[in-house]
Design a protein that fits this description.
9 helices, mainly alpha
C-alpha cells in the first residue's frame, strides 16, 4: 500500500540533491541523478499497479501512463545532456522535445480510451479546437512572449498544443465524469503543473536573463510534481 509513496519520497530526496547540483552547473553525474528521479516516478506508477487496491479493469490505462512516463524519463535525460555535451546541444534538444511530445500523446490516448463516455463528442472537439488556437498563438507570439525560437520554431509550435492537450483533455473528461474519479482529477492537477513547468522552460531556453537558479529550480520542481501526480493517480483507480 505504501510502496508508491516510498518511491515518491526517494524521488523527492533525489530531486533536492539534483536541484542543488544543477544550479551549480550540468555534468553527466547531474544528468544521472535526474534520471534516477525519473526512474522513481516510473517505479511509483508500477508499484501503484502492483501494490495497491488497483482495479485491474484500468490496466490498459495504467500501461499508457507507464509508457508516457518512460518517454518523460528519456526527455529528461536528453534535455540535461544538452548542457553536458554542448557540441550536440541541438540534437539533444530535438530529442527531448520529441520524447515529451510522444509522452503527452500516450497520456492523451490513455485518457480518451479510458474516460471518454460515448455520445459526448463535444468534450473531445472543444479541446482539439483550443489546441489549434494555441498552435496559431505560439507561431506568432514570440515578440509578445519576448522569446526567440529560431531554428526550434517548428518543434515548439508542434509541441505546445500537444502539451496543453493534456490539460484540456483531462479537464474536459474530469468535467464529463462529474469530478468523481480521483485519479483523473489528479492527472488534471499534474497537467497544470506540467504546463507551468514548460512555460518556465520556454523562458529559460528561448528568452533572455531567465536561466537563473530560481528558474531552474521552479522548472524542475513543478515538472516533477506533475509526473509524480500522474504516476500516483494510478493508486486512486480502484
Amino acid at each position: 500500500m505504501f510502496v508508491p509513496y516510498i518511491f515518491t519520497g526517494i524521488g523527492a530526496a533525489l530531486l533536492a540533491v539534483f536541484c542543488v547540483k544543477r544550479t551549480k552547473g550540468s555534468t553527466p553525474i547531474v544528468a544521472m541523478i535526474k534520471a534516477l528521479v525519473s526512474i522513481c516516478f516510473i517505479a511509483t506508477a508500477l508499484s501503484g499497479i502492483a501494490f495497491t487496491d488497483f482495479d485491474y479493469s484500468h490496466l490498459r490505462f495504467g500501461l499508457w501512463v507507464v509508457m508516457g512516463l518512460i518517454c518523460g524519463m528519456l526527455g529528461d535525460i536528453a534535455l540535461d545532456l544538452k548542457y553536458a555535451h554542448r557540441k550536440s546541444s541541438d540534437q539533444y534538444t530535438y530529442a527531448g522535445f520529441t520524447a515529451f511530445l510522444a509522452g503527452h500523446i500516450l497520456y492523451d490516448i490513455g485518457l480518451i480510451s479510458e474516460f471518454y463516455i460515448k455520445g459526448n463528442i463535444l468534450y473531445l472537439i472543444v479541446p482539439v479546437i483550443l489546441c489549434g488556437v494555441i498552435a496559431v498563438f505560439i507561431r506568432f507570439s514570440e515578440k509578445l512572449l519576448k522569446v526567440n525560437y529560431g531554428k526550434f520554431r517548428w518543434i515548439v509550435v508542434l509541441y505546445s498544443p500537444v502539451l496543453f492537450s493534456l490539460v484540456l483533455f483531462s479537464l474536459s473528461l474530469a468535467i464529463l465524469n462529474g469530478w468523481k474519479i480521483v485519479g483523473l482529477d489528479m492527472i488534471f492537477g499534474g497537467s497544470v503543473f506540467f504546463a507551468v513547468s514548460d512555460l518556465i522552460l520556454n523562458g529559460t531556453y528561448f528568452g533572455e536573463g531567465k536561466n537563473r537558479p530560481v528558474d531552474i529550480v521552479t522548472n524542475h520542481v513543478t515538472y516533477y510534481i506533475a509526473q509524480f501526480a500522474i504516476a500516483l493517480s494510478l493508486c486512486f483507480l480502484n
